[in-house]
Amino acid sequence: MTDAMETVRAARASDKLSAHYLRAHLFSDFVELHGDRQGADDPAIVGGIGLFAGQPVTVITTSRGHKLEERLAKHFGQPEPAGYRKAARLVKDAARFKRPVLLFIDTAGAFPGKEAEYAGQGQAIAQCLTDIGQAQTPIISVIFGEGGSGGALALACGDELWMMENSMYSVLSPEGFASILWKDASRAAEAAELLGLTPESLLKGQVIEGVIKQEGSKSAQCREIARVLEEELAKLQKLPVSSLLNRRYERFRKF
Amino acid sequence: MRLFEKRNTISERHVKANKRAEDLVPSGLMQRCPNCGLEFFSSRLDKYKTCPDCDYGFRLTAKERLAWLCEESEEWFKDIQPSDPLHFPNYEAKVAAGKKKTGLNEAVWTGLAKIGGQETALAIMDPFFIMGSLGQMTGEKLTRLIEAATEKRLPIVVFTASGGARMQEGIYSLMQMAKVVNAVNRHKAAGLLYLVVLTDPTTGGVTASFASEGDITLAEAHAMVAFAGRRVIEQTIHEQLPKDAQRAETVLKHGFIDRIVLRQEEKGTLAWLLKYGGMQDD
Ligand SMILES: [Zn+2]
């Protein structure tokens, strides 16, 4: 059995795949589209239209940034309400043209800030759950680092969720979990084990559709992601819209 | 009207001033309003349990609320038992304590009710059942209620009160957010009315899902309505959050709540909205 805390460390490693690298290597073209159409543009979510295996798809990624000022503006990859509203809008736009949606997630969670509360962080996440849950087009998400709580679920509520071998998905960080439940953040490793946040245990619990192997160079890993997504998209695109939506409903109904 | 009510009676002030006297008073005899700080004798609380000064609604069990909210009610799904998907240590004891405090099988009461003559599907979350946290079976009860309402073409009223996701159930708690929201959206697609009443406290994963999806959203006076916890925010932004930052009145000012309701007027307001807020020829 893999040590869950090892997985947590790997999911947080600074030299892992970045959203920028994924956008550059999975899509032959990518045109970024900004804004939530309600007065803001959150840089912690990058979205647009890309070409994937010859077809246009809507691409949405969380983004941590590289330089310090960039990382600060993006709150280290923790989206604000405007980010979730941008994602929801781009998914709705995609559905109008039957364009599939691919989402890539690496976030500790939604940003816990004062302005984020005032701007309705909770409502913005709920909006994503609704708009992504209802959009009439195939939607696949991939967690490639941290998948933290409702802030990750908001972008992972479509037809399928895949996880990279070195990624995690949980209701709360193991440190937060340990300090809330045991008032002792140093018991994080124990918490990680109990939370079942590894791709392996989440696959067993049917929370995710599959695990993407991470072997070889980063470009080899991207080829593996592309292979999986191409195969899955082809399956989903064959389904009539009504069965796609029923399947999506059942995907969460079973829990 | 409230202008003529005395803030403190002499005897109350006496108890407050005399530390030793306070120690002699059996616990539970005095109440302190968490919103305005007023201390008063518990005997001044009626069935609505609101602060005599600021109208803050003290936390109620689902059954206490049920007692004054509806003329008739029928409980549904009371045989469902909480799940323990992580085999969490000592979880059974927490669940047992929650059941004892609330008389419920889970953190939400679900059923059919008549409010001011209007028939509706009704869910009341209970803040005394593991802090009203959203467990797998809390979500299951809500989803079954919503699906039944869609099938029977009934409107839904949901009273939210929640500390958020139930940590002891891990990711399976998180999944309830999407599960319940999806059911709400099918209900809406059927042209039916979904009313939400936010009560103290509504936070975390519940705020980020079905609590924010109401066709009409009411909130009780001074109820805490938040996504992130105050401490987490303050540690992140390194500044103090204003005292009222997560109060319903502030959330209303930012556009996320339709109306603040006083408990005493809730039944009437809900009955009116159930009658006129949805489709008229259904
Ligand atoms: Zn008060």
TrEMBL record, chain A:
Q: Which residues form the CoA carboxyltransferase C-terminal domain?
A: 1-239
Question: Which Pfam families has this protein been placed in?
Answer: ACCA
Q: What is its EC number?
A: 2.1.3.15
**InterPro entries in the record:** Acetyl_CoA_COase_a_su, ClpP/crotonase-like_dom_sf, COA_CT_C
Q: Which GO terms describe its biological process?
A: fatty acid biosynthetic process
Q: Could you tell me which pathway this protein works in?
A: Lipid metabolism; malonyl-CoA biosynthesis; malonyl-CoA from acetyl-CoA: step 1/1
Q: Identify which top EC class this enzyme belongs to.
A: transferase
The record lists the catalysed reaction(s) as: N(6)-carboxybiotinyl-L-lysyl-[protein] + acetyl-CoA = N(6)-biotinyl-L-lysyl-[protein] + malonyl-CoA
> One GO term of the cellular component aspect?
acetyl-CoA carboxylase complex
Gene3D superfamilies hit by this protein: 2-enoyl-CoA Hydratase, Chain A, domain 1
Q: Which GO terms describe its molecular function?
A: acetyl-CoA carboxylase activity; ATP binding; carboxyl- or carbamoyltransferase activity
| This protein's UniProt keywords | ATP-binding, Fatty acid biosynthesis, Fatty acid metabolism, Lipid biosynthesis, Lipid metabolism, Nucleotide-binding, Transferase
Q: What is this protein called?
A: acetyl-CoA carboxytransferase
The record lists the organism as Lactobacillus delbrueckii subsp. delbrueckii
